[in-house]
Amino acid sequence: MKYVLVTGGVVSGLGKGVTASSIGLLLQACGLRVTAIKIDPYLNTDAGTMSPIEHGEVFVLDDGGEVDLDLGNYERFMDIKLTRDNNITTGKIYQYVIEKERRGDYLGKTVQVVPHITDAIQEWIERVAHIPVDGKAGPADVCVIELGGTIGDIESMPFIQALGQFSYRVGAGNFCAVHVSLVPVLNVVGEQKTKPTQHSVRGLRGQGLTPHILACRSTTVLDESAKGKLSQFCLIPGENIITLYDVPNIWHIPLLLRDQKAHEAIFKVLNLKGMTQEPDLKEWTRRAESCDMLHEPVRIALVGKYTCLSDSYLSILKALVHASVGWHQKLLVDWVSATDLEEETAKENHDAYKAAWKLLKGADGVLVPGGFGDRGVQGKMVAVKYARENRIPFLGICLGMQIAVLEFARSVLGVHDAASTEFDPKTKSPYVIFMPEGSKTHMGGTMRLGSRRTFFQTKECKTAKLYGCKSFIDERHRHRYEVNPDVVARLENAGLSFTGKDETGQRMEIVELPNHPYFVGVQFHPEFKSRPGKPSPVFFGFIGAACGKLDAVHHYSNGVGNDISAAAKTYQNGTPTKPAFRAEYANGNCNGNGNGLHY
N or C terminus: fewer CB in 10 A for the chain? Predict the structure, then answer.
């Protein structure tokens, strides 16, 4: 097993996760099998109880692991399925060591950070690195490890110590350290400054880790004088200093690494020269370049609670991008704070209220994502009502689906006090209820989590067609509340259709309005399984409806393929430009494996 460690210096938010993902993709393109591990030095056992505003979105894995959003980057870039153990936290390590101590596994020893914590970290990495994540038998060839935070953080020190020991333990030729650092340009002098990176590398060396490769974040390409300084003072060969300058979209990062021969530098350190092929990134390059050339806009209003931080909805944004690129549309997202749509805001801040409604009314599609707590619920409800009554394409995810059900009950059924017990525990009209097996005493890891099966009730609904008319699908969940099964019959008699349910028929998974251009709510989170070139069917249908092209495609009953761009490209303004299109694609043999829109 070969290991590539990615660390960060100077400031946080440099893009270590994207860099680690891009390195993994580049190595895959060279014919290697790759897995990934993210180390988060915080004391939380997992990311499940963290506020999205504090730490960005909580990404959910197939096994129900609530993890750091960077694992979402790994899965999207490398098209792999990770496990909860691929995310290491200080809380997990200490919990593991304390449990061993309580059992008496240390035989009376005084348990210390060194060697017990550091040994546990190394054992964890080695064990998880050998778990296959690409659907093939046997371990991967390379494990990419990302250490969260920046060099110098107190909480990172045990991990740096452990990784230093680990590099010695696995031996030279099996461990490559990549340090991502900032090279700022001061506006006053207009010169790239290398001193912060020099200090960062010195700090890393002082803690026992020597970087082999420098990945320098800068607004522009690193000039030769700056590269020369870094090489001289950081003791790193010039060919091992890579510039990660600003690019139009992050899909260009693997191409930057390839063009600067980062893979060759890594292979030289890992003694893999001559054992791999030249990187094949043709499809990735085509997708990155085509994304830059999109000009026909599709405008989506994202009505949420955490709109002040885009990372709160990172996977949703990525899923929207994947679908928009598939339809050859330029995605424009308008962030609408749900509270700004409420009548109370109209009284207190009329300008914010007016601006929010202007964005909502100017949108081609309305998306209401998941969330927790009652703040902004009324704003989300009026957004759903606006989309339903004005026949604007709508997608509701998790809480967004529940809000759609409540709005329908209030507006169509006339049940004006229809509510969720999450917001009103004593409501007399509980249309959304706490799930039977949920815990009301513990928050962490007690939701309905991970991959669960949804069975279509009919193959004639929009979502079933988008998924290829399968009998069932597997999607990832993260919720405590769900639609009350006792009110389903009444809702369906009024025109709301629950087209997807769990195996018991008691849990509502998908809701649609059949007579609406696109009104879909899903209890699961389809964004977590969306990939570049393989967009989530639900998002693909949503964007297709928002840009007015979905209805022009009469035969979309075979699902979304591996890359639907070719299919969508044959449509201009919703009109087929290729007469043989329907006949050619109707059988679904579009180089797809059934997880998407073959047409």
Answer: N
The answer to whether 433 and 421 are in contact (CB under 8 A) is yes
Helices 118-129, 157-170: axis angle to 10 degrees equals 60
Q: How far apart are CA 124 and CA 297, in angstroms?
A: 46
How far from 340 is each of 362, 370, 384, CA to CA, in Å? 16, 17, 14
Q: How many angstroms separate the Cα of 395 from the Cα of each of 69, 90, 130?
A: 22, 37, 39
Structure tokens at 247: 């690019």
Q: State which amino acid sits at residue 382.
A: V
- Is 482 noted as a catalytic residue in this protein? no
At 355 the three-state DSSP class reads helix
Which DSSP symbol is given to 117? I
Query: How many C-beta neighbours within 10 Å does residue 249 have?
Result: 13
Residues 6+ apart with CB under 8 A from 495: 412, 513, 514, 515
Given 234, 525, 547, 598, which residue is catalytic?
525
Distance CA 225, CA 245 (A): 16
Cα separation, 19 vs 177, whole angstroms = 13
For residues 178 and 17, what is the distance between their CA atoms, to the nearest angstrom?
Answer: 12
Of the candidates 143, 234, 398, 461, the residue annotated as catalytic is 398
Q: What's the length of the chain?
A: 599
Successive 10-residue mean pLDDT values, the chain, 599 residues: 94 90 97 97 90 88 94 96 96 96 92 95 97 95 95 92 95 95 84 93 92 94 93 94 93 96 96 90 94 94 89 94 95 95 88 94 96 87 96 96 96 93 92 79 74 94 92 94 94 95 94 95 97 95 94 55 45 37 30 33
Identify the three-state secondary structure at position 290: helix
Phi/psi of residue 346, each to 5°?
-60, -35
Distance CA 95, CA 99 (A): 6
| Residue 278 identity | E
Q: Cβ atoms within 10 A of the Cβ of 425, count?
A: 10
- How far apart CA 258 and CA 275 sit, in angstroms, is 17
Is the CB of residue 70 less than 8 Å from the CB of residue 17?
yes
- Give me the residue label for tokens 């299109």: 581
In the numeric block, which tokens belong to residue 433? 């209820």
DSSP letter at 597 equals B
In 3D, which of 164, 177, 179 has the Cα closest to residue 230?
A: 179
What are 540's two structure tokens? Answer: 């693909």
Round to whole Å and give the CA distance between 122 and 509: 41
Side-chain half-sphere CA neighbours of 521 within 13 A: 27
Burial 103-135 (b: 16+ CB within 10 A, else e): eeeeeeeeeeeeebbbebbbebbeebbeeebee
| Alpha-carbon gap, residue 325 to 149, rounded angstroms | 32
Any catalytic annotation for residue 525? yes
Whether 398 sits among the annotated catalytic residues: the reply is yes
Which residue in 342, 475, 482, 527 is the catalytic one?
A: 527
